[in-house]
């Protein structure tokens, strides 16, 4: 019998998460939820949309689980905030791993993680809570990925790399082995990171250049 799940969010990621969970998982999506002010229609993907403020009345925490399907808006801070709100309501947050991903030890993953197809996650890796790993990445042995981080596609994280919390890693980026990336960092598409990075660093290019503007001052993330 499939475990019943509510998805938080009505955007692209929520739609895609729904399709993956319905096609190949132990979970059944029964509803969507957002805060009442953002509800514009009663249905999404032919499932009911319920106000987050009262979701536990109709879907009690004893019988339903939840997944926060929000992307990297505001450098993952939006997803992080909703993650903690769901936890405070008492919901168990699910983690999904595509059957077409290789994860040496799935216990390395925290809750509310989503691992798409064609990822390779090697031995000794530690992945925090609320981490999104899109398709086709390599996470090398003994690497660490912090909470609420979003990794795009075709990223190479070499062995013993540490990536902090709430980071965004753009497509086709690569990290030299044994370096440490701080919290709230923005790694632009195609960046080659060869050295440690302080909190709120912004990188772009190959080899990557450090921007003079910290991530907390950027607009449109």
Tag the structure with descriptive keywords.
Rossmann fold, UDP N-Acetylglucosamine Acyltransferase, domain 1, alpha/beta, single chain, 23 strands, globular, 8-stranded mixed β-sheet, 221 residues
Record the SSE blueprint:
Layout: E1 3-8, H1 12-23, E2 27-34, E3 43-44, E4 47-51, H2 55-58, E5 65-68, H3 77-89, E6 96-97, E7 102-103, E8 114-115, E9 120-121, E10 126-127, E11 132-133, E12 138-139, E13 144-145, E14 150-151, E15 156-157, E16 162-163, E17 168-169, E18 174-175, E19 180-181, E20 186-187, E21 192-193, E22 202-204, E23 209-210
Parallel strand pairs: 1-2, 1-5, 2-4, 6-8, 7-9, 8-11, 9-12, 10-13, 11-14, 12-15, 13-16, 14-17, 15-18, 16-19, 17-20, 18-21, 20-22
Antiparallel strand pairs: 3-4, 22-23
């Amino acid at each position: 019998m499939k475990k019943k799940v509510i998805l938080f969010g009505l955007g692209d990621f929520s739609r895609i998460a729904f399709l993956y969970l319905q096609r190949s998982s132990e979970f059944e999506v029964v509803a969507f939820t957002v805060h009442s002010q953002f509800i514009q229609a009663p249905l999404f993907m032919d499932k009911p949309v319920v106000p987050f403020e009262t979701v536990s009345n109709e879907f009690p925490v004893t019988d339903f689980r939840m997944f926060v399907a929000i992307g990297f808006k505001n450098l993952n801070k939006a997803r992080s905030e909703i993650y903690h709100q769901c936890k405070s309501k008492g919901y168990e947050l699910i983690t999904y791993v595509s059957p077409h991903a290789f994860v040496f030890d799935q216990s390395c993953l925290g809750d509310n993680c989503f691992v798409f197809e064609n990822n390779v996650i090697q031995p000794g890796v530690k992945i925090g809570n609320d981490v999104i790993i899109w398709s086709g990445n390599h996470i090398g042995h003994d690497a660490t990925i912090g909470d609420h981080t979003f990794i795009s596609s075709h990223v190479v994280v070499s062995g013993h790399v540490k990536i902090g919390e709430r980071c965004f890693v753009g497509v086709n980026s690569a990290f030299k082995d044994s370096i440490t990336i701080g919290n709230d960092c923005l790694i632009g598409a195609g960046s080659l990171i060869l050295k440690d990075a302080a909190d709120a660093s912004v990188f772009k290019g190959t080899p990557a250049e450090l921007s003079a503007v910290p991530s907390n001052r950027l607009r449109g993330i």
